[in-house]
Amino acid sequence: MGIRAEQKEKTRRTLIEAAFSQLSAERSFSSLSLREVAREAGLAPTSFYRHFKDMEELGLTLVDEGGLTLRQLMRQARQRIADGGSVIQISIKTFMEFIERSPDVFRLLLRERSGTSAAFRQAVAREIQHFTAELTDYLEEKQQTSRSYAEMQAQAMVTIVFSAGAEALDMNESERAALAERMTLQLRIIAKGADAYNKAKRL
């Protein structure tokens, strides 16, 4: 990559980080203006268009990055599992750490999942599908089960995790700990139920 291309990518990254930095419990992406993002990034508004067609394109990029960040963390969790440890406990711990460290990234995914923009809803749906597919791959390999059963189990787990994540955003530390325990039990029930069902199908 040449110096000019590197500088362009650096400026683009600055705009992305500027947009993320302005998200909060009180401010959604839809409330941000192009001028606000450009000002936060230290750029003239006209410079914005050298990197993004419009605010929607920037927002879709944020959704993609938020989903990728979560998937990367869960991949790291699976590596920690490979080194020894409870699959469910390590996965939940990793997810809750993500909520604690990047609450506004998760808020973005939650808000746009049911927002007014069809493009945003589709983008979040794709990220959830990617997340579910990776979990399905893992369950299919580890449990030696069919793809369809692994996918149904993954879908149930992801639904519970995302729902709990929404609750966790407004909880204190002790409440999040109690929520993590409840999630652990719920996911174990799903896992044990799936295992029993698979065994019964083989008989």
TrEMBL record:
It comes from the Bacteria. Residues 33-52 bind DNA. Residues 10-70 form the HTH tetR-type domain. It holds the Pfam family TetR_N. Keywords: DNA-binding, Transcription, Transcription regulation. PROSITE patterns: HTH_TETR_1 (PS01081), HTH_TETR_2 (PS50977). One of its GO terms (molecular function) is DNA binding. NCBIfam families: PRK11202.1 (NF008402). This is DNA-binding transcriptional regulator FabR. It comes from Oceanisphaera marina.
